[in-house]
Design brief:
alpha+beta, Aminopeptidase, 27% helix, binds coenzyme A
Length: 194
């Protein structure tokens, strides 16, 4: 089972290694590695922002397997803030595979949630990428727990952007119900259809 923990500054090392992995660099739209200084500046700004950055952990094997991110567009909350503001204690997002599917998404606070994923280079090809996408969708839908509490759905529209040559990522998103909605030479935009 995959559990998404909110990333903290303590995760800087594993996040840096995943960010500068050659395949991750090749598949990123910036297509270049980052320095430690750039990485720390980025991580601090993300932790202080509306973005939800997670580290994915396989609870059975007890290892970290990747990372997932939810960028929230039009962050003008009408009712609810992102999950972390509803939690005062723990930081774990526990999204069990038996969690009920989201039904109502009324009350969404953001116009769009953009997902991105990375699996540790030694853990690829075992289904973790697909599991992380599914867990991120549950997080957007407000299905699961966060520090023992639930939260309102964050957005109805869930998207991702992937390079056309990144077959593993395209297949992971496809397996979770995403369809291509805009195809350019260097970029495929995907949207979750329900
Ligand atoms: C893309 C990535 C997250 C996929 O993670 P993963 O754990 O390897 O993916 P999964 O094991 O869940 O496999 C997803 C699908 O891709 C397929 N796949 C896995 N590796 C593949 C490869 N090298 N080439 C083609 N397909 C591949 C799997 O068979 C599976 O397809 P299926 O569901 O139709 O059987 C991972 O490769 C990665 O971190 N790459 C570098 C960073 C990156 O590209 N991030 C995404 C940016 S949009």
């Amino acid at each position: 089972m995959i559990v998404l923990d909110r990333a903290t500054l303590k995760d800087w090392g594993r996040l840096l290694v995943m960010r500068n992995d050659p395949d991750t660099v090749a598949n990123s739209f910036s297509s270049k590695p980052v320095t430690v200084v750039e990485h720390m500046r980025w991580l601090r700004s993300v932790i202080d922002s509306e973005t939800l950055l997670f580290v994915a952990r396989d609870t059975e094997r007890g290892v970290h397997v990747g990372t997932g991110r939810i960028d929230l567009v039009s962050p003008t909350p009408k009712v609810a803030k992102p999950a972390r503001q509803k939690s005062e204690s723990g930081r774990a997002v526990t999204l069990g595979t038996d969690a009920a599917p989201a039904s109502a998404v009324a009350g969404s606070s953001y116009s769009e949630a953009q997902l991105s994923i990375t699996v540790d280079s030694g853990q690829r090809g075992h289904g973790y990428g697909t599991e992380i996408v599914a867990a991120l969708v549950k997080a957007v839908d407000g299905v699961g727990e966060y520090g023992g509490k639930t939260w309102e759905p964050l957005a109805t529209k869930i998207t991702a952007a992937v390079k056309p040559t990144n077959y593993a990522s395209l297949r992971a998103f496809a397996a979770c119900g995403f369809l291509p909605v805009k195809c350019e030479d260097d970029r495929i935009e995907l949207e979750l259809t329900r």
